[in-house]
Design goal:
Blueprint lengths: L9 E4 L1 H5 L4 H9 L6 H16 L5 H12 L6 H9 L4 H5 L1 H6 L4 E8 H9 L8 E4 L1 E3 L5 E4 L10 H9 L5 E5 L2 H8 L5 E5 L6 H4 L4 E3 L2 H7 L14 E5 L4 H9 L3 E5 L5 H8 L4 E4 L7 H6 L5 E4 L9 H6 L3 E3 L6 H16 L2 H9 L17 E5 L3 H12 L3 E5 L11 E2 L3 H7 L2 E4 L13 H6 L5 E4 L8 H10 L4 E4 L23 E3 L8 H21 L19 E8 L4 H11 L4 E8 L3 E8 L6 H7 L4 E7 L1
Parallel strand pairs: 1-2, 1-6, 2-3, 6-7, 7-8, 9-10, 9-11, 11-12, 12-13, 14-15, 14-17, 15-16, 17-18, 18-19, 19-20
Antiparallel strand pairs: 4-5, 21-23, 21-24, 22-23
Helix pairs in contact: 2-3, 2-4, 2-5, 3-4, 5-8, 9-10, 13-23, 17-19
Amino acid sequence: MPASPAPLPYLVFDFDSTFTQVEGLDELADIALAGRPDAAERVAQIRALTDQGMAGEIGFQESLARRLALLGANERHLAPLVARLKTKVSESIRRNGDFFRRFADRIYVVSSGFREFIEPVVAEFGITPGHVLANTFTFDAEGDITGCDPANVLSRDGGKIRQLVLLNLDGPVYVLGDGYTDYQIREAGLAHRFYAYTENVSRPTVVAQADEVLPTFDEFLYQLRLPMTLSYPKNRIKVLLLENPDARAAELFRQEGYQVEEVKGGLDEDELIARIEGVSLLGIRSKTQVTQRVLDAANRLVGIGAFCIGTNQIDLTGAMKKGVAVFNAPFSNTRSVVELTLAELIVLARRIPEKNPKMHRGEWDKSASGSFEIRGKTLGIVGYGNIGSQLSVVAEAVGMKVLYYDMAEKLQLGNAVKARTLEELLAQSDVVTLHIDGRPENENYFGEKEFAQMKPGALFINNARGHVVDVPALAAVLRSGHLGGAAVDVFPHEPKTNNESFESELRGLTNVLLTPHIGGSTTEAQRNIAEFVPERLMQYINTGNTQQSVNFPNIQLPTQQAHRLIHIHANVPGVLANINNVLAAHQVNILGQYLKTNEHIGYVITDINREYDHDVIQALRAVEHTIKFRVLY
């Protein structure tokens, strides 16, 4: 007969800041002292004493005695404390509640906290009172907490060590905790391993002594190959954020449990290649180029987030063929770009770029020469997408006539009129503004020929992409006086950081407004982008949802009810049949299946019953033409 599997080691958990996100006594103080004038001061003192005791800076017995003296708590405060603590269980422990209920006989909670609030919290996870070792409160006749039972070994320095001796567990013991007293169990030789648990708090003196550091309980289960709710620990998902997106992006990724590295500026190709190994999610803006070489070096890359509208800086087809989904923010900064464009055309029409420097030099040049109202003038919009169409509505609201030209058929808004050709638009427009995308074939889309077709004295605005305009040709028509002015926010070559100098033929020209690619650089737009893009990426990681991806087949998936298999493959005949043959051969019950393809790849999502032969995973990875495969629990 095959040997029985080795039993699970005994797992000894701390409670405060490990099983729960918070310290029980700190929360009790917050409840008991509410409304007292010295509440904030007392709570701060209690929390400081907690930290000192957990870090080993003062003895535990001293820490506990001084905290209890400050509490001012009564028995009636315990019920609301328990209710609060039940909502403060560590996320990864709550997520893996089934593990605790399944292996409750191998799990102990050994805490210097108090049984009165620990027992009811851990009971929901199947842990019985006999497996809870903790202090107990003492009360006076009015129910006020006066201290703790001095006969309890956990009320003394070295109490956890003594408690483990008394337990006399027969087998390997692993301790998981955030405090120095948890490490002391290992130091005393009573545990085989000590795991510093840092999901809620990381204490350097404790981490330095640990055999392993656990950012989450998922990591522990993954290392020991134990049953877990997730297929992969979130703390192992590495995010690299470049070009300084709004801080909200990093905040959201960290809240999800991901590792986040931030780089303020852009990176060139070689710099990015040097950093991309091990990165699962890459966040960029417009400066960083994601080339085929970068994709080839990206051994773990799953998704790319463009914290902007444009995606021409990314090899979308190359990413797709590598199984890397790309998401952008097509709407988040639309209003900001529209408002900047409207402001620019008004400023140019009043010749502010040449008036303002004169005033700063002390020159008074009060003249109406070359200035005009925009009301009644014709605005020509080249590119009638999200920005162009919204700009047409705003421009009409201030009295402008709107012409637009787009190679695709678009529904015009308001009274906007579609020009049949670009030449027709240029001949009629007093102001021409570009809002086209940055695809390679649009390089130098607007050059000498197009400038010559514009009306004498017309204004030109480019808030699209730098390389779509022949900048030397623009400089020439401005110097000649054929155009009355220009506003440019994007350039073919832009500094990677704010410390680099900006060079352009447009510098110093009359009635030319130059801005450093700030079309979407408003607080509102950057906040919107920093929420939209991470949400799309995390939805993809967590559910397989590709809705609004710019390079993957778009699928809006229903809520996951079971295990979900994500299979990305080259779009060739027979792959779906081969996938289903594998599932049938392993007698896997399919609960739902979704397929969508494009020219290059097929994207199959299969929801299956939780009970299946794990050999099926390797068999699916081995299906011919597989690009990427992953499992979501």
